[in-house]
C-alpha cells in the first residue's frame, strides 16, 4: 500500500480524500464520529504536513501553529512516498 497514490484510494464516486489526523483524531473511534468510512492509509510526519500547508498557501497563522508543535522524532516506518517528500524538502533547504 506504500506506493499507492491518491487516485488508487478514490472510491467509485470520486468522493474520497486524504486526511492527516493528529491529536484525538488519531483514535479510530474519534475520527469515525464524523467520518464512519475513514480508513487508515499511512503514518505521516509533522514535517510533511507543515510542508503541505506552506505549499498550498494555508493561512500563515495556521502554519505558525503547525510549526510550533514539538515533533516526537518518530523514527518508525512511513510510506516511501512520504520519505521521498521529506528527502526533496531537505534537499531544497541545503
Give the key terms.
94 residues; disordered N terminus; globular; 0% strand; mainly alpha
What this model shows, in words?
This protein has 94 residues and is mainly alpha-helical. The chain has one domain (6-93). 47% of the residues lie in helices and 0% in strands. It contains five helices and no strands. It has helices at 6-9, 28-34, 46-55, 60-68, 80-93. The longest helix has 14 residues, at 80-93. The radius of gyration is 14 Å and the shape is globular. The termini are far apart. 2% of the residues are buried. Mean pLDDT is 77; it is low at 1-9.
Largest sheet: none
End-to-end separation in angstroms reads: 31 Å
How many E-type strands? 0
Helix content: 40-55%
Low-confidence stretches: 1-9
Computed structural class: mainly alpha
**Tally of domains:** 1
Beta strand %:
under 5%
Reading the helices and strands in chain order gives HHHHH
Chain-averaged pLDDT: 77
Please count the helical segments: 5
Shape by Cα distribution: globular
- The whole-angstrom Rg is 14 Å
Question: How is this structure best summarized?
Answer:
With 94 residues, the chain is mainly α.
Give the helices and strands, then pairings.
Layout: H1 6-9, H2 28-34, H3 46-55, H4 60-68, H5 80-93
Protein name: Gamma-glutamylcyclotransferase
Organism: Ovis aries (Sheep)
Amino acid at each position: 500500500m506504500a506506493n499507492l497514490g491518491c487516485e488508487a484510494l478514490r472510491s467509485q464516486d470520486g468522493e474520497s480524500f486524504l486526511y492527516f489526523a493528529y491529536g484525538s483524531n488519531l483514535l479510530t473511534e474519534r475520527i469515525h464520529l464524523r467520518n464512519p468510512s475513514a480508513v487508515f492509509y499511512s503514518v505521516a510526519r509533522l514535517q510533511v504536513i507543515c510542508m503541505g500547508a506552506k505549499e498550498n498557501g494555508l493561512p500563515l497563522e495556521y502554519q505558525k501553529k503547525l510549526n510550533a508543535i514539538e515533533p516526537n522524532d518518530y523514527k518508525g516506518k512511513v510510506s516511501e512516498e512520504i520519505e521521498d517528500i521529506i528527502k526533496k524538502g531537505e534537499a531544497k533547504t541545503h
